[in-house]
Design brief:
Number of strands: 2
Helix content: 40-55%
Radius of gyration: 22 Å
Distance between the termini: 37 Å
Number of helices: 18
Strand content: under 5%
């Protein structure tokens, strides 16, 4: 085991900063900024060492020379000339010069929590009182009036939304409710371009909450992406946000949704309810060996119990080590064993493979992170074949964009695998204002 490389860890994995930007850090990073050279609170004791010097089972350390951004949380949208070309040589089709956001209004008195590689307003924070300014230094009235104007185009709306910080979006949504009498979720929906605008306006947490509420009848894959390979802290925040917005229990709603596979319902409910061990928990070698053996025995019996135990109750470094040890010992890919054990068309098989692909090291991927390679392939699947699965494309692109460093890695992985930029692919499969908004989201994340 000692010769195995440290496994990748998915969301928030360090090592993907675009030029001039800081690393997001590991799953449980504290609020930024930190003084240069100071390791995050509770971070690996191997901070500052090269990955090759980190024992198996520990997360890779921050790059010690990476500077911390003085305005963490500010949208990464940059202005660009109307005719600037993409890396693939095609002209950007949105033709919109995005203004720089104001750096003076990035904070506020509300508590913030880490979610999908960025900081969002704590869902337990109360709404602003009528007439009160929720975010000091930010007045949502001008943007509200502009967005309510019938003469404002979808592109202009996207420009406004993309230059808001997440704290400003939260204040804007409260102002919308106070002024119009409608909750933001009451006015969502419509054509593709409107759905794309909804996602970027809602922000990371509220968008996930709405997706979770509306996933009924849309198959298991959306639920899998919302709940699996996520840290327990984020699943608690998602559940709190769901309860706050709809007054219902997320786990209970999933468990009683009879449009979904029974085994996937059980799996996704368990990952929400069970407190997964910390990723800093030292590897238990005897438990590791036991788990590898139980998966081998399950292949012969068709028993799914080991998969529930291992993929729900173990830490992510432990699962990654199980995958590596199983494939080393049995000389075959665990993915193939899963299909043989659970069935090639079974939804539980799809869910387990989703986690395997995210936790397994991928040599071709940036920083060998299998999760960005997996997510690049999922984006391609929305445009592959006859017709575009627009709903899937919108939510996958939008959710990926929240963490600009990881988004950069996904785009890099996409181009490496398919020999074309994601921008060029999207331009060829979409049209009109809908296409332009997607391209703005795409470039806003880098």
């Amino acid at each position: 085991m000692s010769g195995l490389p440290p496994p990748p860890y998915g969301y928030g994995h360090p090592g993907y900063p675009p030029p001039g930007q800081p690393p997001v850090g590991y799953y449980e990073h504290p609020p930024y900024p930190l003084p240069p050279g100071q390791p995050p609170v509770g971070y690996s004791p191997y901070y500052g060492l090269p990955p090759s010097a980190v024992p198996s089972g520990f997360p890779a350390p921050y790059p010690p020379s990476a500077p911390y951004h003085p305005h963490y949380g500010v949208p990464t949208v940059k202005p660009f000339p109307e005719k600037e070309e993409d890396h693939d040589g095609t002209e950007r089709s949105s033709k919109v010069a995005l203004p720089q956001p104001s750096l003076s209004s990035t904070g506020g008195s509300k508590s913030m929590v880490s979610y999908l590689g960025t900081l969002v307003v704590d869902p337990t924070s109360p709404a602003a009182k009528p007439g009160a300014r929720k975010l000091p230094g930010y007045d949502p009235k001008p943007q509200y009036e502009k967005m309510m104007d019938d003469n404002t185009s979808a592109i202009e709306m996207a420009r406004i939304i993309l230059t808001m910080t997440l704290a400003q979006k939260d204040a804007f949504k409260d102002y919308l409710t106070e002024t119009s009498g409608y909750e933001i979720v009451d006015i969502l929906g419509g054509r593709n371009k409107q759905r794309a605008l909804d996602g970027i306006l809602l922000g990371p947490l509220d968008y996930d909450v709405v997706l979770a509420r509306n996933q009924v009848g849309k198959g298991e894959m959306l639920l899998i992406e919302l709940t699996l390979h996520r840290p327990s802290t984020e699943l608690r925040i998602l559940s709190e946000g769901y309860k706050n917005m709809f007054g219902d229990d997320l786990a209970e709603d999933i468990l009683t949704d009879d449009t979904l596979s029974v085994r996937v319902r059980r799996l996704c409910t368990k990952v929400i309810q069970v407190e997964r061990p910390s990723d800093y928990t030292p590897l238990n070698q005897s438990l590791l060996a036991k788990d590898v053996e139980s998966l081998a025995k399950a292949e012969a019996s068709g028993d799914d119990k080991p998969y529930f135990e291992i993929f729900v109750e173990r830490s992510y470094p432990h699962i990654a080590a199980v995958i590596a040890e199983f494939e080393s010992k049995h000389k075959k890919k665990l993915k193939k064993t899963v299909k043989k054990t659970l069935g090639t068309e079974d939804e539980l098989s799809t869910a387990i493979i989703y986690m395997i692909q995210g936790l397994k090291s991928k040599s071709k991927a940036p920083n060998h992170d299998g999760s960005v390679w997996r997510d690049a392939k999922l984006l391609e699947s929305t445009m592959k074949g006859w017709g575009t699965r627009d709903g899937d494309l919108i939510y996958r692109l939008t959710r990926a964009s929240w963490d600009p460093h990881r988004f950069y890695a996904i785009k890099e992985a996409y181009e490496k695998k398919y020999n074309k930029s994601l921008a060029k692919r999207i331009k060829g499969d979409t049209s009109g204002e809908y296409r332009d908004i997607l391209i703005m989201i795409l470039h806003g994340g880098s």
